[in-house]
Amino acid sequence: AWPVLAVVGRPNVGKSTLVNRILGRREAVVEDMPGVTRDRVSYPAEWAGRRFTLVDTGGWEVDVAGIEARVAQQAEVAIALADAVLFVVDATVGATDTDEQVVRLLRRAGKPVVLCANKVDGPAGEADAAALWALGLGEPFPVSALHGRGTGDLLEAAVDAL
Ligand code: GDP
Ligand code: MG
C-alpha cells in the first residue's frame, strides 16, 4: 500500500482545489459554500516520482451542534489513518478557533504535518502566510491552490514527510 497523505482543514479553505492541483485534474468537488456533506475520498497520486494515496476530507455536515465539532471529528479520523497530514489554512482569514482545534488534534496524533497557507494568490499575501508561524507547526508554505503558486515547494515537503 502507498503511504497516505490526508488533506485536512476547515470548510472552504481550498482543500479540494489543492487536491485537484496535486492530481492535475478536476476530480475533487470544489464548492463555493461550506457545509456540503461528502465522505472522505481517496485518490492515487504521484509527485516527483513518489506515489501516495491522497485523501480529501470532502465535506462537513452542519448540524445543531455547529460545524466546528464536525470538522474536528472528520479531521480526527483522517489524521488517524494518515502517514502525514497536509493542514490547509486560509491565509487571508488567518488562524481561527477551529484551526486551533485541529492543531490540538494534530499535536495529539503526533503525525508529521505540513502547513499550507492557502489563498496566497500573489506576493501581497506572503505576510498573511508568515503570520501562521504562530500556529507552532513550523514553516507555513504560501500557496495558491487556485493558480498553482507555491505548490511545488509544498508538495516536496509533503512527500518528504511521508
Ligand atoms: P474546501 O471546502 O476546503 O475543499 O475548499 P474548496 O476547494 O471547495 O474551495 C473553496 C473556495 O475557495 C472555492 O471558491 C475555491 O475556488 C476557493 N479557493 C481555493 N483555493 C484558492 C486559492 O488559492 N485562492 C483563492 N483566491 N481562492 C481559492
Ligand atoms: Mg472540499
TrEMBL record:
<protein>
    <recommendedName>
        <fullName>GTPase Der</fullName>
    </recommendedName>
</protein>
<comment type="function">
    <text>GTPase that plays an essential role in the late steps of ribosome biogenesis.</text>
</comment>
<comment type="subunit">
    <text>Associates with the 50S ribosomal subunit.</text>
</comment>
<comment type="similarity">
    <text>Belongs to the TRAFAC class TrmE-Era-EngA-EngB-Septin-like GTPase superfamily. EngA (Der) GTPase family.</text>
</comment>
<feature type="binding site">
    <location>
        <begin position="118"/>
        <end position="121"/>
    </location>
    <ligand>
        <name>GTP 1</name>
    </ligand>
</feature>
<feature type="binding site">
    <location>
        <begin position="9"/>
        <end position="16"/>
    </location>
    <ligand>
        <name>GTP 1</name>
    </ligand>
</feature>
<feature type="domain" description="EngA-type G">
    <location>
        <begin position="3"/>
        <end position="162"/>
    </location>
</feature>
<feature type="binding site">
    <location>
        <begin position="56"/>
        <end position="60"/>
    </location>
    <ligand>
        <name>GTP 1</name>
    </ligand>
</feature>
